[in-house]
Amino acid sequence: MKEMRRNNLWQFREAAGVSGTDRFVILILTLAGIISIFNFAEWWFRGEHISNLTLFIILSFFFWYVMFRIILVWLNYLKLNKPGSVPEPDDNLSVAIFTTSAPGEPLGMFEKTFEALNNISYPHNTYLLDGTRDPAFRALAEKNNIIWMDMVDVPGAKAGKINEALRRTDEEFILILDPDHIAFPNILDQTLGFFRDGKVGFVQVSQGYYNQYRSFTARAAAEQTYLFYGPTQMGLFGYGSAVAIGANCTFRRKALESIGGHAEGLAEDLLTSIRLHAEGWESVYNPVIVNRGLVPEDLTSFYKQQIKWARGTFEILFAELPKVFTKLSFWQRIVYLYISTYFLTGTITLFFILVPFIYFLTGIIPGKMTFVDFILHGVPFLVIATLIYSYVQKFLCHPETERKFHWRGMILKFSSWPVYFYGFILSLFNASIPYLPTSKKALIGSITVFIRPLILYSVLFMITAVAVYIHRRYYLPESELSFTAERVWGMLGFAFIAFIQSIIGIFAALETVWLKEDEPWKKVDVPMINNDIKS
Amino acid sequence: MIKHSLKRILFTILALSVGFLIVTGLSFLGNKSKGPLENLFSGTARMVQSIEEKTILAKRENKRADKLKWYKRYQENISLLMNPDDFFWGASDYHSVESYESILNLEDSLWITFPLIHIYTAWGSNPEHQFPELQVKTILRLGSTPVITWEPWLSAFDEKEYPGIPKVEERDKGCLKEIANGVYDKYIVKWALAVKDIQLPVFVRVGHEMNDPYRYPWGPQNNEPQDFVAAWRHIHHTFLRNGVNNVIWIWSPHQSYGHFKEYYPGDDYVDYVGTGVLNYGTVTTWSKWWSFDELFGNYYKDLSVFNKPMIITEFSSLAVGGDRAEWYVDALNGIQKKYTLIKSLIFYHISSDKTVTDKSLDWYIINDAEVLNAVRAIISSWDKNN
What we know:
The complex is a heterodimer. By secondary structure, chain A is α/β, with parallel strands linked by helices. Chain A is 55% helix and 9% strand. Chain A has one domain (1-93, 172-518). In chain A, the strands form 3 sheets. Chain A has a 7-stranded mixed β-sheet with strand order 4-3-2-5-9-7-10, sandwiched between helices. A 3-stranded mixed β-sheet of chain A has the order 6-12-8. In chain A, strand 3, helix 5 (135-143) and strand 4 (147-150) form a beta-alpha-beta unit. The longest helix of chain A has 37 residues, at 478-514. Chain A is globular, with a radius of gyration of 25 Å. The model of chain A has no long low-confidence stretch (mean pLDDT 88). Chain B has one domain: Alpha-Beta Barrel (TIM Barrel), CATH 3.20.20. Helix content of chain B is 43%, strand content 13%. An 8-stranded parallel barrel of chain B has the order 1-2-3-4-5-6-7-8. In chain B, helix 13 (324-332) packs parallel to helix 15. The N and C termini of chain B lie far apart (91 Å). The model of chain B has no long low-confidence stretch (mean pLDDT 85).
């Protein structure tokens, strides 16, 4: 069964088209959702709810910041769009495919990557931007008729190599592929046609994975991307703001040259995307699965990838966005603000999980609302948010495997708060982290330091729970027991949710210990990849 | 072009209305109707409390309720409370919204455990105007019986939630007639049903000092005595009609403003006659150092014609203008013989009382060792209960 599902992954997929009915349903739900949020806000901001003014303001700010982001997500869905049909590419376009190699990346993986690249039907030149100093890589490339370029001493990480390769080549279109991504034969047929429109600067396609069944972390990390590569990007496309993220983006050389080459930095793809938009280039998002790659299997690699992204996107927020802000369209501004503040979630989570402890230690509560009232007033919003969440899952690229409640992804997002918070602090002080390539193989046995805050939190929770019980059992005057029961156990319940998520996060980190080393690409049968249009 | 935009506008309006309907439906489910969801969630909150009661409170040693074992037969029996063969002490303290520690401290100082705890609550549509379930349940868990002064202030009713009620500025004039006519029944019924849930007997003192023209909106400046009687009877009927049988009704005029008979709702509607006895001493221009007999004794005869057990709902003296300890000794010595109908005294134990004067008055006796010693001596001389 599992095997069958895995094989199923190597079938071309595309997200469902958007009908008038879909738009109508989403519009209704969004309006309902916004009204429910207004009702909720009307209740929230009552003077009688303020207990400690400072804390109430911070709590309200964070809470309504999160709610505001949810509204933006909904508004984004209003413009869900999928290109009507993929234009047939002109003949004889000159196309290059760049893929990179870095020290430590397994040679075996490249065998599959190269084999798949050679199967791509549209004529193209493939280049290996080799940074390994390992003659075996050159030998393997040349055996596969791939043009080898030595990039060992080229500075500037991946983007530096791409820019160097741009200088040495002259193809008009460049598809950049990460080496772990195994392309489908029709990948170029799904992108090149869009360049008929001379204003289009880049075409992004979806990004699938084939190793998500390997571990909890892998499943969770994959789950986090499903909505993004489905309805989210489709909405962004509708607003003329589809962004280039990760690999699998096809660029027009002229576009890259107009911004002085591929941007360099920790979130270089996003940076390139924002500069191209600022320069007036348009972007296309085509929700098709025409390649599958690897998602981090162990928490250490995942966190390394995330700290890089967190630091990089904050850098965009602080350094790049102000520079180009006026050149962007209204929606592009909102989109890039939204994306570049995404990792604030770590700081916000930290505040929320501290609230119960502030209460237990000092007796200070931010708001006087009771838990019963809070849940009661939040229910309409929660129901509508769930309805929208379920409805837009219709537009996932591969609903068969992706359509579900992405609880793993949510928990992983929660338990990444130390990483995101750290990324935010680094950015505040403009401190750098070293460039860390995302591990392509599970780092067996190495447990990330970023789970220490999770362990600390869990221990703190258990001590607090015991202390609260002892206090109530032996010390709290009986005349005060029932008055504080709802609040105390409510707070503890709130902390308990965070505790459970921390425990699962710790479990995900420990999973590394028993994760069997594997080379998932060995099981990929490249000739079996199925191009047939089937949705 | 026009056709196209018309289509879009219609589309949007349609979506807006459907969205509005959905939310209205949901809000109805979740908010206004206080229906199944609220019951579910408040049920959960109650469950947490009852679990705590079983797993924490029940296991404690030296529970307060144990000290009130002698009172248990009264706490559970409304007819015993209505025809008391014993004397019940009590206290009130405004600090008792989230804790009864200040009252418990007072009783520790007096070497007594109060069978009655007196709380105040107002009418209205906000959360704090609902039946004080948590406070009442806590009092019962502590082994006592709650005495609730239920004040019909009407300004805090929200017109949206109570359609048909008069505008705020017109609400006080003739308010008792409105109550008698059922305008506030929605609130009264809800409150009554909450009392019913409590099951154990509860003292309720509604519309107190209705004969004082200077204090409360339900006084004679806005209403006729017969309206008070009608309102009282209406409330009483409403409780009975909803099957609420655990209320002991305290009818509580101000002793010095008279007209008792005009305001008396009738023997079938009243279980206790109550009044406050507060010695303001020389703190205000209108007061003197008056003894208990001066404040109460002169009116006792007029109040005893109703032949109902009596409760002194506020009993206290300030310190300025005389010897406070002596005032208490004087008041309490022989009180049961002199005023045989008095079955209960409730200490008015409030540290910052601004209800009558602009100044904040301190009625606390807990810091006054002389008073404590004197009162303690009298209580233990009566001692048969503890």
